[in-house]
Write a structure and sequence with these properties.
Helix 2 packs antiparallel against helix 3. The radius of gyration is 25 Å and the shape is elongated. By secondary structure, it is an all-alpha fold.
Length: 130
């Protein structure tokens, strides 16, 4: 569990270096500018058709890459981590035997903000038992 969390956190906090992003965008624009010149001998005046198709494909791939760069967020295409958090909270509550087996547990009792420096498991257990 901890190694999975560390992997998710590493993906979330590791940013793509800005020079790499700038270089990719610059080379993409240069390629899209030069592709019509390479297609003129074969296509003649119809060069705009394949160059438009290639440009849309390349810009689409770039847009998808930007979208999946940060998969953990609140966008429509992001991974729903809050569902995983609720499941982990319920499993943790079941393992700790904090609640009565007849009552369905409230997952909010087990959720904590990991950015707080002063959270403790005993505080969570006492809050859930109350």
């Amino acid at each position: 569990f901890v190694s999975s969390f560390n992997g998710i956190d590493k993906i979330r906090t590791s940013a793509i270096p800005l020079p790499y992003v700038q270089l990719v965008n610059t080379l993409l624009m240069l390629y899209l500018f030069l592709i019509p010149f390479a297609l003129v001998p074969q296509w003649g005046y119809a060069t705009c058709v394949p160059s438009t198709i290639v440009s849309l494909a390349m810009l689409g791939i770039n847009a998808v890459a930007k979208e999946i760069q940060d998969p953990y967020g609140d966008d429509v295409n992001d991974i729903p981590l809050h569902k995983f958090e609720d499941s982990i909270a319920l499993d943790t509550g079941m393992e700790l035997h904090v609640f009565d087996s007849k009552a369905f547990p409230n997952p909010n009792l087990f959720l904590v903000d990991i950015n707080q420096k002063d959270y403790q498991l005993s505080a969570i257990v006492s809050r859930a038992a109350a």
